Each structure stands twice: as C-alpha cells, then as structure tokens.
Amino acid sequence: MTTRPRKQVRLGVHFPGVNSTTVWSDPAAGSQIDFSSFEHLAARAEAAHLDFFFLAEGLRLREHKGRIHDLDVVGRPDTLPVLAALAAVTDRLGLAGTISTTFNEPWEVARQFATLDVLSRGRAAWNLVTSPDAFTGANFRRGGYLPYPLRYERAREVVDAARALWDSWDDDAVLADPAAGRFLRDGAVRPVAHHGPHADVVGTFPAPRGPQGHPVLFQAGDSADGRDFAAATADVVFSMHSTFDAGQAFYTDVKSRLAAHGRTSDDLLILPAATAVIGDTEAEAHERARHIRRQQVSGPTAIAFLEQVWGRDLEAYDPDGPLPDVDPDVENVSITRGRVRHAKDPLAVARQWREQAEANRWSIRDLVIHATTRGGFVGTAQQVADDIDRHVQQDASDGFILVPHLTPHGLDDVLDQVVPLLVERGSFRRDYTGETLRDHLGLPRPARRDHAAHGAPSTTRPLAAVGR
Amino acid sequence: MPDTHPSLHLGVDLTDAGAHPAAWRTVPAAAHGWFDPRRTADLLATAQRGLLDLAVLDDDHVLQEAPVGGLQGRLDAVLLAAHLAPRSAGIGLVARTDTTHTEPFHVSKAIATVDHVSRGRAGWQVGWSTGPAQAAAFGRKDPQDHDDAVDEAAEVAHVVGLLWDSWEDDAVIRDVATGRYVDRDKLHRVDHAGPRFSVAGPSITPRPPQGRPPVVVPVVSDATLALAARHADVVRLRATDVSAARAQRDRLHEQAVAAGRDPRDLRVLVDTSVLLADDRSSAAARLAVLDDLAGEPWRPASLTHVGTPADLAAVLDAWREVVDGFHLLPAVLPTDLDAVVDGLVPLLQAAGLFRTAYPGTTLRDTLGLARPANVLAATA
C-alpha cells in the first residue's frame, strides 16, 4: 500500500433524468417537474454535506420509430432557472448543470453562469456537452450547422471566449463611491475581442466576476477527443465507467493525458455516475436491486431497447419470450433519435446476445436487464460505503455522482446511511469547511488573467450563418 | 373602456438602483454589495407587502449605458427572477429577454421554468435590440433597424407561445398498464418555418402552470403598438397626458380587435416614474439633489410624478378611466418603493381603488386574466 494520505471522496447527486434509470411507474415516484422535487433532493444532499447537485439536459425530446419515445420520463424544466431557484433554498451545495456548447452562444452562456455563480455565492458548475446532430438542431436557428468532427473545436472556442468574458471584470471592479461619483473602478472592466471560426465575440461584458472566478467546468464526453478536451479544459469528468476495472482504466487514461497540458493529477477529478441500492442484509439489497431493474426495464422498454439495436419494429415479439431469429437491419440507423445508439456493430451484438440468452435461458426482458446493468453499488450500507471508498482509494475514481431511481426520495436512504459511514472512515467531510464548490472539491480559484485579443476581426463570417 | 376590474393594476420596476441615473449615489451602500441578490429580494418583499401585481427586471446583453461614473453591471434577468421565486408569493416576476439574438426555443423553456418554480407567477417582457454592441456580442448577424427587430420579436413571441402550448396540460399520464409515461398524441410539434428561423418542437419543458405566462410589451412606436395588439397581455404605454394615453389605447384596442382579440384581455398600464416625499418641497429638494449629482435634469419619457403619495393617488385616479393601471418606476430604490408601498398603496386601498389581498396565486389571477386554451390542442 502507498503511504499517501487518504483521498477524500467527492459526492454529487443527479436529479432523476429522462431515461429508463428513473422509475416513474413506482407508486412512490413523485413529480419530475414540480420544484418541490428538486428542492427535496437538494436539501437532503446538503444536509449530508455533499459536494453538488447535478441536472442533465437534452434539447430535443427523444423519438423512437418516428414518434416521441413515451416509455421513459419525458420532459423537464430548463436547467439554469432551476439551479438559480435552488440557489435561493440552499447555502453550500454546488449547483451543476449541463449546457450544450453547440446550441448556446458564448456571450449568453458566460453571462448565465456568471449570474448563477453570483446568485449562489460561488457554487456554479457547467457540464459542457456537444450536441451537433441535425435532429437537435431543428429546434434552433442554425439547424444542424456543425459537422460532427468539429464539435470539440467549437466547444473549445466557446470555453475560451467564456473565460475571456469571465476575466474581463477585475474581482474588485465595483468601487461604488457615491461621493466621487464612480461606480466602477477605472480600467477594471475591459472589452473582450475573440475572433475565431466558431465564435466571433466583441464587447463589454455586463456581469461581474463570480466568487469562483470561473464556474467549475465538467465534461462528459467519452471519445478520445472528449477525453483530450477534458484533460485540457475541465475540472471534473462526469464518466460512465463506474465498475472498478473499467473505472481504473479510464482514470489512468484520462489522468495520463493531463501532463501534456501542463496539468497535474489533482487538477481534474473523475466522477462516474453510479446507482446505489442498500438493504439490511446483502441478500435483501440484491433482491431490491433485482426488483428495481425489473421496474426500470418493463416489457415495452425491453422491446424498444432491442429495436434500437435491431433497427426494426419488434412489437410482435413477446418480451418474456426468446430473442428474435431475424437479424438486425444494419441499414436502418435512425430508429431512435435524440440519444446515442448503443451498438456499433449490430450483427455482432445480436449474435452475442442470442448466445447469452440461450445459455442462461433468458427472455428478451432478462437479456435487456442484463445488457443494460452497468455496475452500481449493491449491498448493506457498510458494504456500499466500503466499496465506494475502495474505488476512490484505489484510483478507480475520485468519487461518484449518485443517480437515484426514484424522484425525489430515491437517495434518502443512501444519504442517511452510507454517507455517515464514509465520514466515520475519514473519507468524507463531517461538515462543510468552505463556501464555494471549488472549496468543496479542492480546486483552486483561477486568477484573473488578460486574454490577448484572439484572432483577427473577420470581414466575412463563414460559420455565422445569419438567420437560419 | 370602463374598468371592469375592481383594482388598479400596479407594476414596479426593480432594475438597478432606480430610474434616476444618480439614484445609486443617494442610497446607503447595499449591505451585501450591489449585485447581491439579497438586495433585490428585499425590494421584492417590499413590493409583495404592497400587493403589487408584478415586478419587472430589465435586461441587456451588454454593459448598460450610463453617465460617466454611473452604475453599470447586471445579472441575467431570467435567472434572477427564478432565484427570487422560491422566497416570494403573490407577486409576478417579469424578466425581459432580447429576442433579436437569442434562441426562441431557449427563451420559451426559460420563461416556462420561471413559471414552474414560481408556481404560476412568471411573466415575459418581450425585448429586442438594434444596437451594434448586442450584434457584436453574439457575432451571428448584423444589427437590425427598429421595425425589423420588432417584426422578428413578433415572430419569436408567436413561436414561444406555440412552444408553451406544445404540451397539453394532461400530457403526462403515467399509465403503468401500458408502460407509457406520456400520451404522445398530446405533445405537438410546432413546425414553425418563418422568414427568419425554423423551430421543430415540441418544447422539452411541459406546459407552464399559467398555460402561457403573461406577455408584457412596451409600446414605443407604431411597430411595437402592432406587436402589443397581437401578442401582449400587459401593455406598457408611454404618455405624458391623458388624451395621448387615450389615443394610444384606442389604437391598441382597434388593432387588437382587428387581430381577432377581445380588448378586455389586455391590461394597459402607463409607465409612471415616481419620486415621493411627505411634502412637495421635500420631493422637489430630493430631485434637485439627484439632478445636481447627475449633472442634468431628469426627463423620463412618460408620466412622471414628483410630489406626495396623496397627490400621486389623485393623478392615478384621474388617469383611471383611460388605463387599467400603472407601471411604476421608482426614482430611487428602495426609497421610492417604500413610499409607494407605505404611502400610496394605503391611500388607494382606502379609496377602494386597490386590492387588499392577492385574489389568487398566479400572475394571471392577479391580472384578472383567464388561463388561455391551448391552441395546438384545439386543432389536434
């Protein structure tokens, strides 16, 4: 064992989203829209001294077979207004939100996050995602304007421009001397000029620099480009690799990319999403987990999932019966829109799944439950606390973003029972020791720096397609 | 038109330090700093104590223009409105957004969400911009002239309304038997393909509690009068005498009728800048101090009252036959807001001109506006 000090576990809570993880059909499931649901989860997370609350977003309702996908939760309030409202009913909890760099402009999004950081007194975080598909673009003026390979190029530029805007006000820019009649300190607010292929931003920013300087930046992309972008830019990676081995591999890979950008291992935290199911005994926890998985994967959900891989209508099949004999339609790649297609090679996946199902005598639903189970902690509170701590101390992660299956009470038991055990072990804070999210996460506050005028003013704007 | 509502409608502007450009120099330093939301929350609490209909938070993408040394800097109005929602009740929260450079889809879900977190108290002031500064901040298109920007604002207002209607109220069914969370026949695409932009829809955010949060339009030109006649629930007129207000109101009502609307569905307020004191000479003295600090006389573009709350009550009473109410712009915050709530409001209540309790919980309740039918459901 190493002699390094015990790592502190970082923990966030994820508000239940619009996918099959969220069990809306349970009698205990509450509103996905009412502010009281958001307030409940945030209040419980803050009472347990967690690092942050996390909201995801998608800018187009998912479709399946040409119609709105109706088997999962559909719809949600807008990310930033919800976080701004939560800032009024919490004091310390970080407030993280997903905002696309593809369909938001740097000036507007920088102003929104500067505002959220001021409203929350230093608790804002921005999860940067890209969403360059034309399906999502149909809701926006520019449509599907951005070629897929350029999505991180645009994201990088949006962040560069946003940072220049956040740094355009000195921390002490407001003098507010009524006798002298000077509100802003001379020269303390500077105009910004950023000219690039993806963003052309010139002007004087209206929002003061937030308590954190810059909001904490999260990044969630998993491709090589996404990992490089995270290593260069992000403070936190929101990862999908929650199992121990995959977590360690991802952790090693991403942290090894930091040096190339002049950063150290402490500058970037890796936080996988994870579910946690606890019981009084291990057997009871596993039984609960099995029950939740069956709730998450209803018969129609199992068929719809299979249809994504098969690219065909499989409604005639019995979810409690065997897998289809017919092969996937490899030409039809657009049966589901608004989410990532799971299978890169549908024929191989189908072959493998048929073999698995036959060997285990699994129905379609059993197979889908198995195929979509990605790690997650199951056990007694003690076992789950031990397991979380093991992942963190052995560098499979720096902590987790806990994803409940029920709105809004789904994490009550984990927060009540597991977190105190982590505190007892010395792996989690007993109380907040800082004010801002950067304080909680041990991330330094970025100093304001001068951003040289970036690029040259363009006389033509190749990507600034006007109107449409 | 006779006032069919028992109460005047009173809005109030809570932007910056007040309407007078030197306002910030005459109030004690804000306890937590000028941009601390607790300052605005305190102002809102006062307005709520006075049972005012709504508070407007102005907004601009770029640093607002001010005299040399003047107050500058602002938070995003929509997010500030959302932030004020959980700790307030009764009063409406109206944020302005620029429609010239923003995405209609984003505007729609943002205002809808302010309505969700406030449980039905959101309003939306339609804004537009013609300045090169706003255009340069976004770098997406050239500045537009006034009529063109207002015309685009009308297209945005139309689409935002459709997006609010893109979910029927009872679209979420949670039908465990069939495994369906929504009835997708009650979600509607917008499929707007207009001269300036296209939006597919439906919204990602379910229909707001008020159906459509009230839309506020300031009238400053023929183009904006036409915009208000078609899209506004609350109209802010600028007028300095009753006859000018009457003429504008009549044109507004005519155009509303021509657009197929019932003029009784519009609440017409006149922008009213107020500077108040216990006696007239004290008010005049306060104005002299402010003007001296500003280096020029204060000349608001609409009805302005410098004097006592009792005189103001008489002015409002005299204008009452022409308009449904007033959008008050206090010269100095909190000074003149306090005087409105503690001086003017009790006088109006005593005269039977103003409510003594909020009539309901939503901004539409307060304005006496019915919850609108869903136009997409009607055609489905």
From TrEMBL, chain A:
Keyword tags: Flavoprotein, FMN, Monooxygenase, Oxidoreductase
Region (Disordered): 439-468
Domain Luciferase-like positions: 24-390
Keyword Isomerase: no
Molecular function per GO: monooxygenase activity
Pfam families per the UniProt record, alphabetical: Bac_luciferase (PF00296)
Annotated SUPFAM superfamilies: Bacterial luciferase-like
Biased composition (Basic and acidic residues): 439-453
PANTHER family, A to Z: ALKANESULFONATE MONOOXYGENASE-RELATED (PTHR30011), C2H2 FINGER DOMAIN TRANSCRIPTION FACTOR (EUROFUNG)-RELATED (PTHR30011:SF16)
Entry similarity comment: Belongs to the NtaA/SnaA/DszA monooxygenase family.
NCBIfam families linked to this entry: FMN_nitrolo
The name this protein goes by in its record: FMN-dependent oxidoreductase (Nitrilotriacetate monooxygenase family)
Organism: Cellulomonas iranensis
From TrEMBL, chain B:
UniProt superkingdom: Bacteria
InterPro entries recorded: Diverse_substr_monoxygenases (IPR051260), Luciferase-like_dom (IPR011251), Luciferase-like_sf (IPR036661), NTA_MOA (IPR016215)
Keyword Hydrolase part of the UniProt annotation: no
The entry's keywords: Flavoprotein, FMN, Monooxygenase, Oxidoreductase
Luciferase-like domain ranges (all copies): 29-287
Pfam families to which the protein is assigned, alphabetical: Bac_luciferase (PF00296)
UniProt family annotation: Belongs to the NtaA/SnaA/DszA monooxygenase family.
Name this polypeptide is given: Alkanesulfonate monooxygenase SsuD/methylene tetrahydromethanopterin reductase-like flavin-dependent oxidoreductase (Luciferase family)
